[in-house]
Automatic annotation (TrEMBL):
This is Uncharacterized protein. Keywords: Transcription, Transcription regulation, Transcription termination, Transit peptide. It comes from the Eukaryota. Belongs to the mTERF family. It holds the Pfam family mTERF. Coiled coil: none annotated. It comes from Hevea brasiliensis.
Length: 266
């Protein structure tokens, strides 16, 4: 193997997956590595995939992954998207072929083309759940005011929004609609909203904004939903550190036990 790369990586991988010790270096591990190289082309990407799923070196990649890759290529999925599939969700690409075929056809029926950057994300979300689970999530969102057309539109724009569990969807929608009083159409406009954690992101930011409003430091008609989408660094800079001196306890309220991590952020 070039530059002894595998030899350097093996000790770390053995800790993650002791089955590697039972596989021959020349008969299994190197061929598996070369198989991944044929699609990833870059050692760093190969390392990322293997570290995420060390079993890539011990499973039968040609027997399980090759037919799926051939099918995706035939469907027109470009090489850079295949790279994402392997590095981000290697377990999905190891599903039985009939699952891949089902997911690809379902996603194409929604209007997403294989060349779209969202296509592989949509496929891996489809693969991750049964058809009955998919229907339950659709019915759950319909029960709180979303039309099926709007739900599918949100999925096409950001497929990971429906990777969330039903319980997660219920909790986050309860917060948006009953605490924040947001309208369903506002939430639909931001599919990522379904992915945010209530206790780690939404509630702390919401509490800060309400305190700032009550102290007349920001206007109450500000588009609050946009403030949930900005990065943690920008939220800290513009809405916590900026007003920390004017509102005693604001920083402590927001970061809680981890406040030392953020002090001095600018």
């Amino acid at each position: 193997m070039k530059n002894g790369f595998v030899d350097e990586l093996l000790p770390e991988l053995i800790v993650l997956n002791r089955t590697i010790l039972k596989r021959g270096l020349d008969t299994h591990i190197k061929p598996s590595f070369e198989f991944l190289r044929s699609y990833l082309n870059d050692n760093d990407k190969i390392v990322a995939a293997i570290k995420r799923a060390s079993w890539l070196l011990t499973h039968d990649l040609k027997g399980r992954m090759q037919p799926n890759m051939d099918f995706l290529i035939k469907e027109g999925v470009p090489p850079h998207c295949l790279e994402k599939f392997i590095t981000l969700q290697p377990r999905a690409i190891m599903q039985r072929k009939h699952r891949i075929v089902y997911a690809v056809n379902a996603v194409k029926n929604l209007g997403l083309q294989p060349t779209s950057r969202m296509f592989v994300h949509a496929v891996r979300v489809m693969i991750s759940m049964s058809e009955s689970t998919w229907k339950k999530k659709i019915e759950l969102l319909k029960s709180i005011g979303w039309s099926e057309e709007k739900i599918l539109s949100a999925f096409v724009r950001d497929p990971l929004c429906l990777a969330c569990s039903e319980e997660k969807i219920k909790n986050v929608m309860d917060f948006y609609m009953n605490t924040m009083k947001l309208e369903p159409h506002t939430i639909i406009a931001y599919p990522k909203f379904l992915m945010y954690a209530v206790d780690k992101r939404l509630r702390p930011r919401y509490d800060v904004l309400k305190v700032l409003e009550s102290n007349k430091l920001i206007k109450g008609n500000r588009k609050i939903e946009w403030l949930f989408t900005i990065t943690e660094k920008n939220f800290m800079k513009n809405y916590v550190n900026r007003y920390a001196d004017e509102v005693p306890g604001l920083l402590e309220m927001y970061v809680g036990a981890n406040k030392a991590k953020y002090i001095g952020t600018s």
